[in-house]
């Protein structure tokens, strides 16, 4: 027999599939990871970077849960920046440039070191389904492989079509063929599918770029990382660069608009509003004279550069002509043109919060198949689908993260409850409880939960406990130690804040926005300084945030607790909403389609009014 019976088969080895396979296997499931090409595991098909606004928080959450994305990023990064440091800590977001080749290789190494993961290079062309339950997959080699659950993470491969000007050809990404058969079978089984579009820019030969005409963007002076495990810090970094388009560039790009598949109607899929192609930006923001571009290195030892912000599906010769009119790119040579890719996805209202499909038991969707965009969003879904597939096979309660617990919870709840009308991308503005969902406290929110589940290791849990103990010790010190005006007024004056005339607690002084914890620690008595001398940056950062923003944090916790009461009111999935005539017609239709599991979820469905929620609450005796 070529294959044993598996607990979980994961189809696709992108960011979603890799995290799904690792999570299920680390929990104890026997996993088979099937991919078309074992050389491109977790490949960064678009820009070579992880994190960013809200996305960095997601990577930290994945790491806190025991996932691999943060560790792999830390081991392969070539630059690190903490974005939004000029704003409040709820907005701080880590971002790293990675070495594209090293990233994929490190992911494969991590998966090969994960007990319980088997690999198979093949194409999945269909599912084995019996009595509305998935029992395995069919492959392009004609094999039938049995499993108790299946996680589909097909990315942009389902009936993928690549567009470059008037040229169109099948493909899941440049150099890889599309996947056929799965969409057609799922539609026959009753699923709704639709089309989406994404794109990528030209890749440029760095030897042909005049960097003297660009604006250098260096990494942080003290680079951090994503993982809560201690990783070697970057001793050197590669710079990114900033360039700008111009009216002349725009005029040249416009000459190809009539050949653009986006404007000619050949692309039917919905494109991303927040990461549009350059031609879409020029068309949508016709009054702007220029657009910012980011010139990003692809790795330590390559001359290849990625031009972030210049995604395009225009003819290749138009792309190159316009590129050479950007200052610094007058003599640019490219490795390959930008292109658009159109692919199938399945509206995510067809899923439960576990990411299991409503129509077929034990079948899970994760990543771009659900209408999302971004490595981080995909990886988060893969992690949760892998966890819940394992739990379902073991007949254990599922893991569902709330909106006040994690950006991962916000992401999945948005998908299931609101659906998507464009590729979904995470932003801090999507979360109601941003001050609770900070990048520095993902371990405090999630590690204990994951450890009890059996995913986060004891080593990870011990690190978390030690960190929390240090934070508590430091907070108590700062609240109990007073400083004399003569000792501290020099520091206050140099920081541009008012002097004190009587002794004050260090914790009270820390409330001043001009003062930092590292500055105030200098005024601890010498016997206490020795205690905190070994405290790392993460402990100091979390302590300062907790003390400075304590009032805001408590208010947000209270608000989250109030709204959580709605989440405690369970709704029966089989409830007949059409029988409640006091509900609006739209509410009856939406509730019947989405089948919310709680009153809280029902309240977030588009088209459901407060009066509809009141009707449901009264009916339920609330």
Assign the CATH class of the domain at 203-338.
Mainly Beta
Estimate the global geometry from the Cα principal axes.
Answer: globular
Helix content: 25-40%
CATH architecture of the domain at 203-338: Beta Barrel
Give the tally of β-strands. 22
CATH fold topology of the domain at 203-338: Elongation Factor Tu (Ef-tu), domain 3
Whole-angstrom Rg: 26 Å
Alpha-carbon distance between the termini? 57 Å
- The computed structural class is alpha+beta
Low-pLDDT residue spans? none
Largest sheet: 7 strands, mixed
What is the averaged pLDDT score?
93
Bin the strand percentage: 15-25%
* Separate helix tally: 22
Question: What does it look like?
Answer:
There is one protein chain. By secondary structure, this protein is an alpha+beta fold. Among the domains are: 203-338, Elongation Factor Tu (Ef-tu), domain 3 (Beta Barrel), CATH 2.40.30.260; 458-554, Arc Repressor Mutant, subunit A, CATH 1.10.10.1800; 568-619, GidA associated domain, C-terminal subdomain (DNA polymerase, domain 1, Orthogonal Bundle), CATH 1.10.150. Helix 1 packs parallel to helix 10 (375-393) and helix 13 packs across helix 18. It starts with 5 loop residues before the first strand and ends with a helix.
